[in-house]
Amino acid sequence: MKLIFEKSSPGSRGITIPKHDVPEIQPDTVFPKGFLRQTPAELPEVPEYEVVRHYTNLSSLNYHIDKGIYPLGSCTMKHNPKINETTAAFEGFTGLHPLVPEHLCQGALELMYNLEHALAEISGMDAVSLQPAAGAHGELAALMVMAAYFRKKGEDRKYILIPDSAHGTNPASAAIAGFVPIQIASGPSGTIDCTELEKKMNPSVAAIMITNPNTLGLFEQEIERVANIVHGQGGLLYMDGANLNALMGIVKPGEIGFDVMHFNLHKTFSTPHGGGGPGSGPIGVRSHLAPFLPRPRIEKTNEGFRFSESVPQSIGKAHSFYGNFLVCVRAYTYILMQGGNGLAEASKRAIINANYLLSKLKGMFEQTYPGQPLHEFVLSGTPFKNKGVKTLDIAKRMLDYGVYAPTIYFPQIVPEAIMIEPTETETQEELDRLVSVLSAIVREIETDPEIVVQAPHTTPVRRLDEAKAARDLDVCFKSL
Ligand SMILES: *Cc1c(COP(=O)(O)O)cnc(C)c1O
């Protein structure tokens, strides 16, 4: 595809403006000379319809959730209802300056207050802060809250326990917050091994970070025992809430022993994600940690809603102003649209969809941890290695068939991992399409593995150097 600059032709105009009927002002009579351009800006000259066509075509080069299923495990790529965009575009919200006085933004404050309380209700936590901008940022804020809690108690706790199935952000956040992460090995069933935990738990451990259901999609059945072991030594339980889509309306983390957690509004609560944001990663805490939450807090008084800065033990600000407000508007819309049992229904459907897919796929791949999963599951592509085909090749070949690839090589405890999370928003027909694509690829591996190894064949670009593409972004048109 050509760049918009390459479509430019001198004199082409996007719009024509009627001739003005007021005297012309020379720019240099208004602006100091040094600030004026010597040469015209190098802008592409194209008619309006070319601009529209160009960006419409560009937008469909990439795969996205509005094109088809997006089964990225751990990411909860559910459909983002369009009504979320409608409410987030309300002028009363988009036109708000973050420094507008409280009495002029009561509606926005009420929305934040209500969302905090809705998340507290969903999670069984006592207080919520909407400030953190993403899951990893929520982890960091929560770890800082835990550090402040122990500082206040006069306890010196250095270590954070993290299961080997955890997301890489967990140990990274622990290290950035000044703790030392310690890995604990999963048991043979893929869940936390309590004997191993008992060995590693001691009074210098601040907390254990647990993803529940874990990244294999398995519910931590022994969570109460885990809580007893950790609380017994004065430690805290942190829940990585990225998989809350399996629990909403069914299990409240605050009621099964967790002291603190983060939410990924851009996962569970249907706000768009990918491409670097914006997201939102609120944190929820039980009452003993509430005094340390980021400030300002939002309060409801007889005179209305207001920000309170008098939170003397707060860790301080976690984000400029109050977090990514318009993401919160989308998540709040989603929660209200679900109504009474809607969130529980969404979680149950997510679980049914995952188990339906698993039942169709487990014959084709290897299931390293055969427990019954909740909303996502992990298979292994090791059976195809003897044909010279890696999981990466299968993922790339899926793109040729017009479906997005699942998460691969995560969690790291499964070799050649393929991690699928269909979410509740996909129909049985779309799930069947995914199954038929995977079975077609498995047949190809038997008959013509080379076509899989060389994939993708039909995408705008073939195989990218993914590490370089992410670290060395080059989005500038330089040949001008
Ligand atoms: C997505 C995810 C995170 C990190 O969340 P971000 O919003 O991407 O920062 C942490 N843990 C798990 C299990 C996740 O899936």
- Name of the level-1 CATH class of the largest domain: Alpha Beta
Shape type:
globular
Largest sheet: 7 strands, mixed
Q: How much strand content do the residues show? A: 5-15%
Please give the share of residues in helix: 25-40%
Structural class comes to: alpha/beta
H/E topology pattern: HHHHEHEHEHEHEEEEEHEHEEHHH
Number of strands: 12
Number of H/I helices:
13
* Average pLDDT reading: 95
SSE topology:
Layout: H1 48-59, H2 82-88, H3 91-94, H4 106-123, E1 127-129, H5 135-153, E2 159-163, H6 169-176, E3 180-184, H7 194-200, E4 205-211, H8 223-232, E5 236-240, E6 260-262, E7 283-285, E8 297-301, E9 304-308, H9 325-361, E10 377-380, H10 391-400, E11 407-408, E12 417-420, H11 428-447, H12 449-453, H13 466-471
Parallel strand pairs: 2-3, 2-4, 4-5, 5-6
Antiparallel strand pairs: 1-7, 6-7, 8-9, 10-12, 11-12
Helix pairs in contact: 2-9, 4-9, 5-6, 9-11
Bound molecules: pyridoxal-5'-phosphate.
The site of pyridoxal-5'-phosphate has 13 residues, from helix 5.
